[in-house]
Amino acid sequence: MVTDTFPSEKPYTRCLVEAAAWCAKLADEGIDRSPELDRWLSADDRHRAAWRQVRGPWTFIGEHANAPEILKLRGDVLRRAHASSRARSWVSRISIAATALLAVLGVLFWAFRGPTIYQTGLGERRVVALSDGSQVELDSASELRLRYSKDARELTLLRGQARFAVAHDESRPFSVVAGNQKVIATGTAFTVDLLDSTLYVTLLEGRVLVRPRNAVQGGAPTAELGVGEQLVVSTQGRAHVAPANLEQVMAWRQGKIIFDDEPLSTAIERVNRYSVNRLVLVDDRVAALRISGVFHISNISEFVDTLTHYLPLKSEKQHDTVLLSLRELTPTSR
Q: Which helix (H) or strand (E) holds 314?
């Protein structure tokens, strides 16, 4: 054994402290393994589990030894060890240092590790419970990057759309970057939708502030939304705020798409988020046609049938693509 017993510690917490102490001892002696460590590992399954849990972050920190946070950690641990110099043995001193290390090890590991990525495939929806109590619902064909630190909660929607329910924490701002905009919230609920290069931000509860992604602090925001309002930022960067049709905005959570006099080009982009067979407009003359209706995302063929029945369109299937073009009207069909 490397450490004394710690009767006040829970058994597994004590194993973690012992594992950290072993890391410190091996580093101090400049070795990677020892017979004593092997005996300790073989004595208890909890020893092996604790070793795996501590060794990864310890190695990670070693690879970033010159980073300011790591240098500060090293100083903190040494001060703890020197402060305990009157303890009865080196074993006790290194155990106290290991306890101090464990208190900050997890924080540093999360600060340095790469972002977490969440994705959904075609037709898949996913609910993600975040570590701070916030919740994200991802729609089909969506991708979200998340990076949490002790000072900030930073997310980036790379594609698709999502609903965010944010746990209140003023000390750690919650932000979602999408396109060229950043949505900033504390405790609220909102949706973000990236449709091609057009961004839609809809506020469901609370308030959010939307700023240009690289805005100078203190600059004018793109918009500050109230409940039921939607910000639309076009491909050209033009932004406007209008009342939102919340039933239409949230229809995807019930497996539906609702169109209300929308251009066919926009409707096709939305449908392609759910369709295995990609729909393509091969005739620019039909892009501005308007469409309304409620469609199930699990039945895209119904959508195509409706288009070809009520609009002057024809469809042609080619492999995994459905081509939509203008149907020439004959004298008998007028």
A: strand 313-318
Alpha helices in the chain (DSSP H): 11-29, 35-43, 45-63, 68-83, 90-112, 246-249, 264-271, 300-310
Task: Find out whether 159 and 118 touch, Cβ atoms under 8 Å.
Answer: no
List Cα–Cα distances, 203 to 93, 180, 242, 257, 322, in angstroms.
54, 18, 11, 19, 35
pLDDT string in tens for the chain (334-residue length)? 333 333 334 666 677 778 877 877 777 677 878 888 889 899 988 888 888 877 766 665 555 555 555 555 555 555 554 554 444 454 454 555 555 555 545 545 544 456 789 999 998 999 999 888 999 999 999 999 998 887 899 999 999 999 999 999 888 899 999 999 999 997 899 999 999 889 999 999 999 999 998 876 666 788 999 999 999 999 888 999 999 999 999 999 999 999 999 999 999 999 999 999 999 999 888 999 999 999 999 999 999 999 999 999 999 999 899 999 998 765 554 4
Q: Rounded to 5 degrees, what angle do the CA atoms 138, 144, 149 make?
A: 120
Indicate the domain borders of the chain.
Answer: 11-112, 116-244, 255-333
Task: Specify whether domain 255-333 bears CATH 3.40.50.300.
Answer: no
33/35 Cα distance (integer angstroms): 7
Q: Would you say 101 and 27 are in contact if contact means Cβ atoms under 8 Å apart?
A: no
Three-state DSSP class for residue 253: helix
In DSSP terms, 281 is beta-bridged to 324
10 Å CB burial of residue 193 (0-12, 13-18, 19+) is buried
Residues sharing a CB contact under 8 Å with residue 85, sequence separation 6 or more, in sequence order: 93
Is CATH 3.40.50.1370 the classification given to domain 116-244? no
- Annotate 48-98 with DSSP letters as a single string: HHHHHHHHHHHHHHHHTTTSHHHHHHHHHHHHHHHHTTTSS-HHHHHHHHH
